[in-house]
């Protein structure tokens, strides 16, 4: 491995610290995803003739569902033995640990509850929410980059990142010239962020160009295929996040993504009742 070609990454996760208060890049980016997402949801709701005040309620459902789902997903998908032995740790969100697959389950549950309460069609709501979720996912992965977490496997590519803040964690050290060393790695957080931003661009463009023509569930299906399809690819470049799955061909993130991609193809390819009716008439 050529250690002369890489990007040194030593960003402080904290923007500033005053007494007991500290502002971290991850928190700022996480919050930015929600604030920008709310602004974009208002634009879509207004375009669809819906009330702006409904977006405020939707944002609350989304925020609570995202945090609860992501936290529980991390605890039970990636380290169930530890958290079942230390259940109080589940509530210590500030110690880190959020999982996107858990967030997906939480968001869908929250949206189902929201659609029931406000008498919205579930897939109609989901089709709009996934547009901003893709954008928020990009912000969150940038937050992971700022935290130097969810790192990739070693790489000798010129854009590989040497995450200096990984320190001397033994699980990340690699033998180089007979010594264990911290080495450059794939910046998979950046890879994922870019693909999420691209997904957002595609969904946003489709909504404004063909939103009213698309059958309900189409944007949702495309979101699932793109986001979790890319996730399957990038997982090959990540270090294992679930220790109990070490040695297996597929990582936990891939196993959780496969059914979501299949569900995405279902929503993309299924025929709606109106389409079936048109087919029968013809």
TrEMBL record:
The chain crosses the membrane at residues 15-37, 58-78, 98-115, 122-140, 188-207, 219-237, 252-269. It is a multi-pass membrane protein. A 1,2-diacyl-sn-glycero-3-phospho-(1'-sn-glycerol) binds at residue 141. It holds the Pfam family LGT. Its EC number is 2.5.1.145. Its main location: membrane. Pathway: Protein modification; lipoprotein biosynthesis (diacylglyceryl transfer). It is an enzyme of class 2 (transferase). One of its GO terms (molecular function) is transferase activity. InterPro entries: Lgt. It is found in: Cell membrane. It comes from the Bacteria. Keywords: Cell membrane, Membrane, Transferase, Transmembrane, Transmembrane helix. HAMAP family: Lgt (MF_01147). Belongs to the Lgt family. Catalyzes the transfer of the diacylglyceryl group from phosphatidylglycerol to the sulfhydryl group of the N-terminal cysteine of a prolipoprotein, the first step in the formation of mature lipoproteins. This is Phosphatidylglycerol--prolipoprotein diacylglyceryl transferase. It comes from Algivirga pacifica.
